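Lab meeting, action items carried over

1. Structure of the two-component assembly. Owner: GW. Status: complete.
Input record:
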Amino acid sequence: MMRVPFSYLDRQFADLDAFLADLRAFIPTGDFTLGKPLVEFERRFAELSGMPHAIGVASGTDALILSLKIHGVGAGDEVITTPNTFIATVGAIAMTGARPVFVDSEDGFVIDPAKIEAAITPRTKAILPVHYTGNVADMPAIAEIARRRKLLVVEDACQAIYGAIDGKPVGSWGATAGFSLHPLKNLNVWSDGGLIVTRDDELARKLRLYRNHGLATRDEVEIFGHNSRLDTMQAVIANRLVGDVPARTERRIEFARRYDEAFADLAPELRVPRRRPGVRHVFHLYIVRVRRRDELHQFLNARGVEAKIHYPIPVHLQKAAAHLGYQRGDFPNAEADAEQVITLPAHPYLTDQEIAYTITQVREFFGKT
Amino acid sequence: MLSVPYVDIAGQHAPLKAELLEAVSRVIDRGEFVLGREVEEFEAAFAKVSGTRFAVGVGSGADALVLALRALGVGPRDEVITAPNSFIASASAIALAGARPVFVDVRDDLNIDPGKIEAAITSRTKAILPVHLTGRPAAMEEIGAIAKRHGLAVVEDAAQAVGAELRGRRVGSLGSIGCFSLHPLKTLSACGDGGVATTDDPELAEHLRLLRNNGLRTRDDARMWAVNSRLDTIQAAMLLVKLRHLDRWTEARRVNASFYRHELAGAVQVPVDGPEEHAVYHTFVIQSERRDALKEHLQARGIGTSIHYPTPIHLNKAAESLGCGPGSFPITERQSARILSLPIYPELRPEQLAHVVRSIREFFGDGNPERVPRSPHE
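Predicted assembly:
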């Protein structure tokens, strides 16, 4: 039986020599905090994102928290997002003191722009669309609403490094965007890590202060700030990986295309989400909807295909969200997804044979050969 | 000329390089980058260092403070009492938790004056956050008694004081929660940012674990809104290597401190150890009226020094809204013009220590600058 792993870490780092050689040179420098390799990585990430500024922070969660707080979002404010996301998106809003307000997702797991306006109140300060799974939210529509209603837009691009709409990259639509470098992300380091990108020079300057205790110089504190710095040691790792992002992403996109094609005739038992034209979906997660999800999940795992569920409980039904007063039925799409989604391995370290094997297993489950 | 840099991070890491890289490779081989086995091992080992039942690894010392305050329910409209002469993070943590920092002046030992705390307590005061500045324990017995009398929590800012003791009890175990930094310049340091929160209370420990990990009890069960602030597994693996050397390093700092104290007494004001006080000398801070000239003099002789910190927290722009102008905390303000931190790290060689002492004596016109100081290792 073939084994198709969900995680790619052992393949990606099967040969450690080059990484360890970099670290062997780096560790004796002691340049551990906001050091030279970090500056270099920020420059290269900015270039990859097509944005003038990238600021390394401790995690994708912090990238969102700092982005919201630097704009003054806090107690008494509301921030609109979708319950179809990883918990950290919403945790970030709550950590600023603001209230998360949910809007249901559309077919592609991203916020439905048509439902945003109904959720806006006088307290709404920002919209926080999530480019969930690596799909890109409908940013032209969201930006238009934000402009008209004078709202801030912060993009949660944690899963969408190198994503774009009609060539315009994620991170370029909002005031800032947060990215994650968590070990399972499309660009990953050996620990938690994140980045904020922005086109605004003054905002970039303030974010650099804000991630570093508010220190304008070693001895002058301009604002009470966080300690949220991307470790320079992790930037050493990232510098070795960042150049590969376009090629690796193309491979993810190619695998997703093969899956999409191979599953086209399985509807309505298995439904491939709608692919919006012009979107460079980077397929951090390749997710389809299946009525007999739990059965398929078991079947695939028994056949060696490591499928996962992202996520079985939508955020608004988590215990953490109880105080917000939402109930089952409030967000039908997100709730249906929680019952039907299944994530197939689609990372760039898989072989053509493994993708073909996965396709065969899925089709076999539905009695198709 | 003999050079004595103020810090020498590279000097600590060069001899450990092979061991550190081996520890890192073990983590990579298992792919356990987030909350992996070494984090638990390090937490267990660190709990022994702090003399507590629990230690929770977090992203930084600053985060340890923020999470500790949050775990204790400190938030908007609350006040937290601390010292104004610390690193900014002591006060920022309070502000980031949504509360208001309230400062109380310090004593000659650079730690918060317990005699002045009660006057600062209001109906909004929720906690006292004493700082064990320079690695010297604050007056925890007096502070504990005040906290008990007023029903306040005590959060120890032990960022600079890993392993310090008061009457045989380790810092980190003397309040509700102890907060440590593992920043590269600390006495026990990660090769990046890192921190630890310690406690004896199982509920607080569990609360801290949720707060550092997006509120997740399991992958799919979010119990509360929270941040992501986890000590990296890779850092924990390297810290386990370094932890084996901690006692030796701390002892070397104390030996260096005692040498300086003996050789410099009379020329400058030197820090002294109180009874049953085991300070770990993260910094060795002397005081002199002629601080700035002395600093320049030492610089010219290749000796790096530092000032912790030249501007008290309350006089920084960040603290403007708190409304404490110059004169609010006279002892802190006076000290800020007098304090100077000398190189104190374990890797200092005897001739470097002697050069520091000789240069300081020379500055103060010691009759015989060529007199060779006693060796620190005699």
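2. GW to write a short summary for the group page. Key points so far: The radius of gyration of chain A is 21 Å. Chain A touches chain B through 62 residues (CB under 8 Å).
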